[in-house]
């Protein structure tokens, strides 16, 4: 599968987002990964739909809004209106029982498809695949977190690699891995079956983003 790279704008210069989006595009990015955090689901607050809408005006790259928020079902419409092409929501944010989570996930997926936004389901490092198995026929993008969500610049959790391989055995769609991606962990993730890589620190702090993207794609 072709490897695609989504620079995570959490590590970008927030005072110059238009320029950062342009820099990512020129460096060969395939999509922009936008981390939305609410201070409840994760212990950090980042950006809302207004910033995604502003970013939308500056780039034609697909925008993936990764909702790390409680009650994501309440925010689907504003993030869709802001111009997100892909919206991911966390399975852990949808309730206490597996049944309740799946029920809510199905409704969110239906709503997203109806408005032509690509749905993706995200799961934390400690969340088992069993929790999303019932959704794999409904989505074609799964986001596997390789750090505990909340902050950029953390170390890749190698314990998620078997989960990526297991997922690849049962799922032919896109598998995005996010958190602690660098040239070494990118290779581990791809070897395990990932084809989409979100990377913040490694790309935005690189001396040359184009070279860094090439290294992640392993086509130097
Ligand atoms: O969602 C998250 C963190 O919660 C990620 O998207 C990070 O923003 C990735 O940053 P790096 O680990 O690549 O610096």
Automatic annotation (TrEMBL):
InterPro entries, sorted: Aldolase_TIM, Ribul_P_3_epim, Ribul_P_3_epim-like, RibuloseP-bd_barrel
UniProt remark on cofactor binding: Binds 1 divalent metal cation per subunit.
Protein's GO biological process: pentose catabolic process; pentose-phosphate shunt
UniProt binding sites for a divalent metal cation: 33, 35, 66, 178
Binding site for substrate: 8, 66, 150-153, 178-180, 200-201
EC number(s) recorded for this UniProt protein: 5.1.3.1
Top-rank taxon, per record: Bacteria
Cofactor (UniProt): Mn(2+); Zn(2+); Co(2+); Fe(2+)
Molecular function GO labels: D-ribulose-phosphate 3-epimerase activity; metal ion binding
Family membership: Belongs to the ribulose-phosphate 3-epimerase family.
Name of the protein described by the UniProt record: Ribulose-phosphate 3-epimerase
Gene source species: Velamenicoccus archaeovorus
Gene it is expressed from: rpe
